[in-house]
Design goal:
CATH class of one domain in chain A: Mainly Alpha
CATH topology of the largest domain in chain B: MetI-like fold
CATH architecture of one domain in chain A: Orthogonal Bundle
Shape of chain B: globular
Helix content of chain B: over 70%
CATH superfamily of one domain in chain A: MetI-like
CATH superfamily of the largest domain in chain B: MetI-like
Largest interface: A-B, 96 and 98 residues
Radius of gyration of chain B: 25 Å
CATH class of the largest domain in chain B: Mainly Alpha
Order of helices and strands of chain A: HHHHHHHHHHHHHHH
Structural class of chain A: mainly alpha
Helix content of chain A: over 70%
Distance between the termini of chain B: 41 Å
Oligomer: heterodimer
Strand content of chain B: under 5%
Largest sheet of chain B: 2 strands, antiparallel
Structural class of chain B: mainly alpha
Number of helices of chain A: 15
Number of strands of chain A: 0
């Protein structure tokens, strides 16, 4: 056996191994699709991946079962709002922590960093009473305020600070020379330069909000106000048993657009996450 | 420039300070109200007991902690479960992530394709992932047991037998999160200069020796970061448990974050749940401090 063929065989073995490993990562998505297209009776009774009869009606039934379009929209607008607000406030604070010299900035930074890894579960109980007092129960406000000002917002601030620290100062100094205010320099000079960081932080923040589950579960009761994760968890019949065909169809409707975006913007999304991990 | 001419340098400094505070104030104010305040409050709540009948709370001192640590068997059960969960998830996740990263960081044909595949669950919502796996792990007719029966194995009732339920939530959680660690490892591997490994290869070192003597030591900072992130992530796991097992069967998958939710929002034991939240806070704080110390020791 020549060296070449040996190498070829090694490579084929690698690929077979990786394909085998990929099964539990890919297969769930395929079964989700298959289950989503089966009727209530076939979901379990038929072992075949391809439905005997395609039930497109599952998709319309979802909308009859709960206000799914409304819930979809809720998730979307909340995620957009959280992302926009986080990008604005976090980049501004991150800019100040990187560039402006003011007494107390080190303390602010330390305070924020110490919250970087704190899970929502630690503060969820007092936040429940706080939101009650503020009259924000059963509204979307907690789902906007808590990610924005909790560990996610803190992480965004920290990532933006790291980015601004690495940015050369010269352009901003030129902006100062041209008579721009501090805010002007941040907004007109630094912010446009930070597009890569903004898109990375934006992607992570959007996904964080989009996938949020504990907060909607605790703060929202009305089915009209549900977000997608809550809606997906809510497909049960009157006995509390899951309506698998509907649940899987709804899950597919929630997951597939994200997967398409992911495949199209794969590189950028993956790099955003790589950036967020390097922070630590 | 106009500012510099108008006033002495002290006002310039003062102006910068004012701008600085103005810039951080929106996020800082919100952070104080929705994070620091609640954090202080949770310590206070943990020393009180809420009475459902009178709708009032009264001070009980350390009672809730004593309750958790000495009287309540469930608490120790929960702590052990959280430990088992972390002990299962963290090594499995990190080993798999490292293995995948080593296989996929090189420009093997199709590496990008496989990276995309292994990372896909990371961007999928945990709720969706848990729903699909709950479906696949059904006893009689789930896809997993059907596949096992083909090779003659009679699969267990995954989510309804205590040990299998724990194994199932660990396994599916690893699948959900391993892509992120893989990406972090790949980023770290790609930053290792080629010359190092090339030089070792010329010296006649084999693959394992290169990994052990060069790659692994250079990955150490990344390994530390990944370990802390993964341990913290395992401590706050909630969605998976909520959807796949609800903490059962027989509390076999009742972990700390879920227990806090259950006590706080299902049984309304505000004081006790707050004490649990404080314990979670202390655990995570300890991990954060440990990471800082280890990082400092390295430098």
């Amino acid at each position: 056996m020549t060296y070449r063929t040996q190498q070829k065989i090694t490579r084929i073995c690698w690929i077979i191994g990786l394909c085998a490993l990929a099964i539990p990562f890919v297969f769930p998505f395929i079964w989700m699709l298959s289950g989503a297209l089966k009727g209530q009776a076939d979901v379990f009774s038929s072992a075949s991946l391809i439905p005997s009869q395609i039930h497109w009606s599952n998709f319309s039934e979802i909308f009859a079962y709960q206000p799914f379009a409304r819930q979809y929209f809720n998730s979307l607008y909340i995620a957009v709002l959280v992302t926009g607000l986080t990008l604005f406030l976090a980049s501004m604070a991150g800019y100040a922590l990187a560039r402006l010299r003011f007494s107390g900035s080190a303390l602010v930074l330390l305070l924020l960093i110490s919250a970087l890894m704190m899970p929502e579960e630690v503060t969820i109980i007092p936040n429940f009473f706080l939101m009650k007092k503020l009259g924000l129960m059963n509204t979307h406000m907690p789902l906007i305020l808590l990610p924005l000002f909790g560990s996610q917002g803190v992480m965004a601030t920290f990532l933006m600070r790291q980015f601004f620290l690495a940015l050369p100062k010269e352009l901003e100094e030129a902006g100062r020379m041209d008579g721009l205010s501090r805010f002007g320099v941040y907004f007109k000079v630094a912010l446009p330069l930070s597009r890569p960081a903004l898109s990375a932080v934006g992607i992570i923040t959007f996904l964080f909000s989009w996938n949020l589950f504990l907060e909607p579960l605790v703060f929202v009761n009305d089915i009209e106000l549900f977000t997608l994760p809550l809606a997906l968890a809510n497909f049960t019949d009157t006995y509390g048993l899951p309506l698998w065909h509907l649940q899987l169809a709804a899950t597919a409707l929630a997951v597939i657009p994200m997967l398409i975006v992911y495949i199209l913007a794969q590189r950028q999304i993956v790099e955003s996450f790589a950036l967020s991990g390097v922070k630590g | 420039m106009s500012a510099a001419i108008k006033g002495p340098s002290l006002t310039l400094k003062a102006r910068e300070a004012i701008s600085g505070w103005l810039f951080v104030s929106p996020i800082l104010t919100g952070f104080m109200i929705f994070f620091v305040g609640p954090l202080i409050a949770v310590f206070y709540y943990s020393t009180t007991e809420w009475n459902l009948l009178s709708q009032q709370s009264h001070f009980v001192g350390m009672e809730n902690y004593v309750d958790a640590l000495t009287r309540n068997d469930t608490f120790w059960n929960v702590l052990v479960n959280s430990l088992v969960f972390a002990a299962g998830l963290v090594p499995l996740n990190m080993l798999l992530a490292l293995g995948l990263a080593l296989a996929l960081s090189r420009s093997v044909r199709g590496a990008v394709f496989f990276r995309t595949v292994f990372f896909a669950p990371v961007i999928t919502s945990a709720v969706a992932w848990a729903i699909i796996w709950t479906f696949l792990l059904q006893h009689e007719s789930g896809a997993v047991n059907r596949a096992l029966s083909v090779i003659g194995i009679n699969g267990p009732n995954w989510l309804h037998e205590p040990h299998w339920a724990m194994a199932s939530v660990i396994f599916t959680r690893v699948l959900k999160t391993v892509g992120l660690n893989m990406i972090l490892y790949i980023a770290a591997l790609q930053s290792i200069p080629r010359d190092y490994t090339e030089a070792a290869r010329l010296e006649g070192a084999n693959g394992w020796e290169i990994f052990r003597r060069i790659t692994w030591p250079l990955l150490a900072p990344t390994t530390l970061v990944i370990m802390v992130i993964t341990v913290v992530g395992s401590l706050k796991v909630f969605d998976h448990i909520y959807l796949m097992t609800g903490g059962g069967p027989q509390n076999a998958t009742l972990v700390l974050a879920f227990y806090i939710y259950e006590q706080g929002f299902k049984f309304f034991n505000t004081g006790y749940a707050s004490a649990l939240a404080v314990i979670l806070f202390v655990l995570i704080l300890a991990l954060t401090i440990l990471q800082t110390i280890l990082k400092a020791a390295r430098k």
